[in-house]
Hints:
The complex is a heterodimer. Chain A is mostly helical. Chain A has helices spanning 2-22, 56-66, 135-139, 148-157, 161-169, 176-189, 196-201, 211-223, 254-257, 289-298, 327-337, 343-347, and strands at 238-239, 266-267. Chain A contains twelve helices and two strands. The longest helix of chain A has 21 residues, at 2-22. Chain A is globular, with a radius of gyration of 23 Å. Chain B has one domain. Chain B contains four helices and 16 strands. The longest helix of chain B has 21 residues, at 2-22. Chain B is globular and about 60 Å long. The chains are: A mainly alpha, B mainly beta.
Amino acid sequence: MNRLSSLKTGFGGVGLVLGLLACQVEEPEAQPQELFQQPANFPQPVYAVDQNRPTAAGVALGKSLFYDGILSRDGSISCAECHNQAYAFTHHQHDVSHGIDNRVGTRNSLPIQNLAWASDFFWDGGVHSLDLVPIAPIENSVEMDERSANVIRKLRASATYPALFKAAFGTDEINGPRFLQALSQFMLTMVSGNSRYDKWVRKEPGGTLTVEEMAGLTAFRAKCSGCHAGELFTDNSFRNNGLFIQGSNDEGRAHVTELPQDRYKFKVPSLRNVEKTLPYMHDGRFYSLEAVLNHYAENVQPTENLDPLLQPKSNSDQSRLGIPLTSDEKRQIIAFLKTLTDDQFLRDPRFAIQ
Amino acid sequence: MRLSLILLLLVCLLVGTIWSCQNEVDVSETGSLIINLDNRVGNQDLSLGKATYQNAAGEAFTVTKFNYFVSNFRLKKADGTEYVLPQEANYYLIQEDKPESQSFTLTTIPAGTYIGMSFLIGVDSLRSLANISQRTGVLDPGLGTHEAMYWEWNSGYIFLKLEGTSPVAPAAQNNLFFYHIGGFGGGYNGKKTINNLRTVTISFNGNSAQVSASGRPQVNLTADVLNVFTGTTTLQIAQHSSVMFEDYSANIANNYKEMIRYKDLQNQ
């Protein structure tokens, strides 16, 4: 690996010399800006960015697809329908998402942000690669209700897309992998890492936390970070957090694995921009952060596969189900969670509808 | 960047040339082998939507769809050794409604005498988890060269799809039955999940296929829909009219493991 990169550097050097010889009068070409930016406080991405590195044309194509109803059966529903930028790309004011013909799903749409760091997708983790994510809402009968093969046919027949695919991939061939890679390129660029918390961690201007928020951070680390771990505020695991079983009796992860030990487990979601991503939980049953914390403090149910972290422990102050939280702690934790709001991301014109 | 790639290519070519010169005597002849798959129901040719058949449980049924993946071919030589075909060009989707899909050619096989072969029904876990750029053609999950042989909500290929009608299937289901069988065994943080990949081993029954640069040997196989309904488990449409990603699917996979059989071969 090292030898290869030094070889490459060597050849790059030769190329530079030859390039200079060939056109001495011209300014050397400016390096294109890296479109996928990894915040300094983030870990290495899970997604193999090298295998599908975003380019300006690829991202433009992906963005065009993201905002285009052509992905749905009757042209009415684009990705943005349930993934609205102002709410960190979630479906605001909808507990479960509404799709085509006003049909209603069973789950609350998840934010589209920092997906390069996610290892499994959707509440049940049924999709294991970002590249495969868009097929699920396209084919879901209550979301876009379309066949992905038909989307490809429509794109091939469109007046604009062949040229966009040519710009992105070199030829105007439109196929499944290219379609999916372009959407991934756009989604990879949707990185939220400039909240006030991030600036505080990186010691940047504007990175100040109040006494209340600092107290919240301390309480959060003690009581919440067992699951909402690290800088992405999730350990990417699937857990049963003790919700009342109601409505569609959604078995979550077990739907995908068919394993009894996965019944009622759902993805631990990231908490970035959590102030804006209400409602909360897989079925959107809680409309405020207060309701969420009240659940953990007072209302955790002893359902099948309840997470061990929510079980009582004899040697601590956790004498009953859930997480012991005082009202001060709840208020402080919520104050801290609001420092994860990244206004720059929520208003970034690069992600906005044209 | 482009220049450095060209230079790298030149170095590779140079190294390659030296290497091939040293091994000149080993440069071997290759040839191809045509595989023909004929879908049947017992001793009748499969006819979609028209003929009525009877399964081992005595239930009448018609077939409206019969698709399956075969992959990972290995050819067995007379001396007992095996030639494993390169994985990247080793996936075929057989569709009853697409006659051209029922015949395909395995290429760049070392010349020699072959007495049998083995392959998978399904798409292996390695390819099921591979980067999207390595999943083109019949493996393209977003494209309709195949018809929805893919679960979008639970990423993975459907290995075998058998659909049809039967008077014993529920009226509320329009008397339709569906068997969508897949599951490559995991990829979920190391957890074992349903694995319905099955290996088929075929002997050419004492015959041999002569692979050479000039010959075009053909191996004729049959796939019997009745085997989906019988084998280690007698599948009753009345009891199981719709089987997809669930534990019971393994019974159907154990049945379809036996559905493909050797018929004959021709050396030309």
